[in-house]
Design a protein that fits this description.
The chain is α+β, with helices and mostly antiparallel strands. It has 7 helices and 12 strands. α1 runs antiparallel to α2 and α4 packs across α7. Bound molecules: dinuclear copper ion. Dinuclear copper ion binds next to loops.
Length: 314
């Protein structure tokens, strides 16, 4: 965006998520400045022009002026519509993650961040990403509300316990950006910092391969073994065949019709809810027979199972 506003914001490092925000902010500032200047000049002009000059200077009695009132209502209304439409478009963009996004799991806690990769690597308070590729962060909290904020990318998203939220960005160049927790979460809230470290694609792959994966397998491998160990596969097939419950094959992203006729798209939050509170939503044509896995599976177990289900494409 124009250099006129550079002093107000840090350099934009993810134009795909931030360009619209910056342009809208510049627009609001320009409009505000024009209105401020117009009102101030008009005030000074009227104060001088209609100054009381003698004692018998009686002002005329004016009750209303339709033209003027319509003008000062319609113009602000139009401006509000422009700001709303522009903001809504930008918000939709922030909510529409590109298909080729690289996914990283984020776990927030008092007071830090853990980032988990597809190969099982986990790293604290540093998230390494490739440049020039969209990155999606699927986030949850282990305790209270936190919020993931990267000023350089113009992204900010609350991170909640018992529910997944996500953000995406695309850093165009290698380098570092600061992450802040921006929801007050207790004593060390202001120390709950992390860094985004952007590598070239090649460097990123090398970095990822060098990380310690803990020997416990990748999230997908752990998810697969949990699904077998916990007996999920007794009722949910992984090959598309129909058992007591809906098949896991192709489940992620599938449009499901519920018993009450409503439809939804199976995402992380839906799968999580179905594991912890199976009776909340029953897919049409199936019975309410499953018991809750609350207390039997940890948050990490559930995330691993979801990662595994995501791989079961049709
Ligand atoms: Cu976490 Cu503030």
């Amino acid at each position: 965006m124009g250099s006129l506003f550079d002093f107000m914001l840090p350099e934009l490092k993810s134009p795909m998520t931030g360009a619209s925000t910056d342009a809208l902010m510049a627009f609001i500032h320009i409009v505000s400045f024009i209105i401020l200047a117009g009102v101030t000049i008009a005030m000074i002009y009227f104060a001088i022009k209609y100054k009381r000059r003698s004692d018998d200077d009686t002002p005329p009695l004016i009750t209303h002026n339709n033209k003027l009132e319509v003008t000062w209502s319609v113009i602000p209304l139009l401006l509000v519509f422009i700001v709303f439409g522009w903001g809504y478009k930008g918000w939709l963009n922030l909510k529409s993650v590109p298909d080729n996004a690289y996914e990283i799991q984020v776990s927030a806690y008092k007071w830090g961040w853990t980032f988990s990769y597809e190969n099982g690597a986990q790293i604290g308070n540093e998230v390494h990403v490739p440049a020039g590729r969209p990155v999606k962060l699927v986030m949850q909290s282990q305790d209270v509300l936190h919020s993931f904020f990267v000023p350089d990318y113009r992204i900010k998203q609350d991170v909640l316990p018992n529910r997944y939220t996500y953000v995406w960005f695309q850093a165009e160049e290698t380098g570092e950006s600061q992450v802040f927790c921006t929801e007050y979460c207790g004593t060390s809230h202001s120390d709950m910092l992390a860094k985004v470290i952007v590598h070239t694609q090649e460097e990123f792959e090398t970095w990822l391969a060098q990380q310690n994966t803990g020997g416990g397998g990748t999230p997908v491998e752990r998810g697969e073994s949990l699904v077998n160990l916990q007996g999920c596969v007794t009722c949910h097939s992984v090959d598309g065949s129909d058992l007591i419950g809906p098949t896991f094959q192709g489940l992620y992203g599938r449009e499901e019709t519920m018993q009450d006729g409503t439809t939804l798209t199976a995402d992380e939050n839906y799968i999580r809810e179905s594991i912890l509170d199976p009776s909340a939503k029953i897919v049409e044509g199936y019975q309410n027979q499953m018991v809750s896995y609350e207390g039997r599976l940890s948050d990490e177990d559930i995330s691993d199972i979801i990662e595994y289900i995501k791989t079961l494409e049709e």
